[in-house]
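Table S7 (text form). Paired inputs.
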Amino acid sequence: MNTAEKSLRHLVEKWLAPTPTVRIRVVQFGRMRADKMRYAHIEASTLTGTRAIFFFRHADGCWCVFPPQIARPSMTRYPLSA
């Protein structure tokens, strides 16, 4: 996977399409409570309205528009030795 395609800058340009007339700003940047993963709340303002998207940083360092899956407890079955 090309990490440049998953950078926060690339995703903001892809999803919010900034132009000279579109104002982009970071509304909030922080960590989620459950797993301490980073998120960014980005907003694009135009004359016709405002759009906002949350971006989430995954464990591999890439940013995505969906949150990373939370690690959950799991059970593993081991064969019994005879």
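Next pair, protein 2 of 2.
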Amino acid sequence: MELRRLRYFVVLARHRHFGRAAAELNIAQPGLSQQIKVLEQELKVPLLDRTPRGVLLTAAGRELLAGAEALLSASGELTDRVRAVADGTHGRLRLAYSRSGADDHVTDLIRRFRKDHEGVRVSATTGMSSWCLRLLQDGELDAAFVRGTVRRTGITAHVVAHEEAAVILPAGHPLAARTGLTRRDLRGLPVVLWPRDAGPALHDELVADVWPGDAPRLVAEEPDFEQVVAAVRAGTGISVMDLGRARKLCPPEVTIRRFTDAPPRFAVSFAHRARDTSPVLARFAAYVTEPE
């Protein structure tokens, strides 16, 4: 059975008159009559009792009408879903963002996308930048927000934000009395950072910017920014992290000081596989990169 003929039958069953049904369908009355005859031949049963005043449904016709209406409704819904998937307004989106990047810019963007695209099921998780990129390359994620500038084969990335970096140090540290610090002030001081493997791009960019030409005096590596702050609080050393994150994590025992000489800025990059043609991903990528 063709859905087109079923729709003709449903309209005819509603009007019980070939002329009025043909007018609604915008086809010639003989053409409608012919299509209904073909439908009866396909089913091998009479669907209508034709009378001078119109048509009446047979028992088989009434049964077909009940099923046809449900089938046409389901067909319409399926068509809408298929089109929604094709234009990126329906489907699934698997995201991740670095734990250090789980701040206002990224989380607000994801929240707004969910609100504006209710047909897209968004799942999000957090992890170190290197972990996010590995899952992305393995096909377990559709996109990721990571720290630093991303240069990986098969990955397309765009810098979508920059965050100012600042120094954190124990409140009792001699430099804590200053209102601002320079890169020169940090030379030779014991430093606490996170392992390079957790976020190579961010780590390398930070070291090259804050300690140009001279590696920092690294005394400890901690797995995340929370542990870095704890180590600084304990007096292990000083550290550098994005200002917004520092303001959220640092207790009174840890002082935050901004740079006075062109503050370093951390890049936040949006990354996805270069050959991924998912319509949902394309819509989200446009959403991420469009001007606010």
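The longest strand covers residues 155-170.
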